[in-house]
Design a protein that fits this description.
Elements (H helix, E strand, L loop, with lengths): L27 H7 L12 H7 L2 H10 L13 H19 L11 H12 L3 H11 L3 H8 L6 E2 L5 E4 L5 E4 L2 E2 L8
Antiparallel strand pairs: 1-4, 2-3
Helix pairs in contact: 5-6
Length: 183
């Protein structure tokens, strides 16, 4: 035991030791022996080219493929026109999504859900205000509301089912709820 002052201090080297292989270079003669000679291109068929052409596996695969069939009536494939169409599609999509370019009587489904829920508790005057705030005509909203609505829970339609393990299941019957005003 004892105090830290009585223990020998650890001595670290002043410089990191360099590995034994560092700074050594291979002799030029040894480097030439280790590298394989790359194949040379040739304008004439030499023995290597003839040997490659006589590969039996390659010849069998080529014979299985058969002759090339060219469809002369094929339409030309233009990458630039496809890229142009894709660019136009992106530009159109961005323009439609821009909130400043909203079209009258077109709203998102989540917005329509909010509008229909607010419509259930509104008076006729409130519905006209809601319609103008959401950018939809009152007549279009009334026409749409005849066929589309959001779920509502009916009064007195709650049923509780108790299971043997102590759990309860509560269900409500969905009803079609019209706004309180007369149209």
């Amino acid at each position: 035991m004892g105090a830290a002052s009585s223990k020998a201090a650890r001595k670290l080297p002043k410089r990191a030791e360099t590995p034994s292989w560092a700074g050594k270079r291979a002799t030029p003669a040894a480097a030439d022996v280790q590298r394989p000679v790359p194949p040379q291109a040739s304008e004439f068929k030499n023995e290597d080219i003839q040997r490659d052409a006589a590969d039996p596996q390659l010849l069998s695969k080529l014979s299985q493929l058969g002759p090339v069939r060219v469809d002369h009536h094929m339409q030309s494939y233009r990458l630039d026109s496809q890229a142009g169409r894709m660019y136009q599609s992106v530009v159109q999509s961005e323009a439609e999504a821009d909130p400043s370019n909203t079209t009258r009587n077109r709203i998102l489904s989540a917005t329509l859900t909010e509008l229909l829920n607010e419509r259930k508790m509104a008076t006729r005057k409130d519905v006209e205000t809601l319609a103008s705030n959401y950018g939809i005509d009152v007549a279009k909203l009334d026409s749409l509301a005849r066929f589309v609505n959001t779920p509502s829970m009916g009064e007195g339609t709650r049923s509780v089912i108790k299971h043997g393990n102590g759990e309860e299941t509560i269900t409500h019957t969905a009803v079609w709820e019209e706004p309180s005003y007369k149209s």
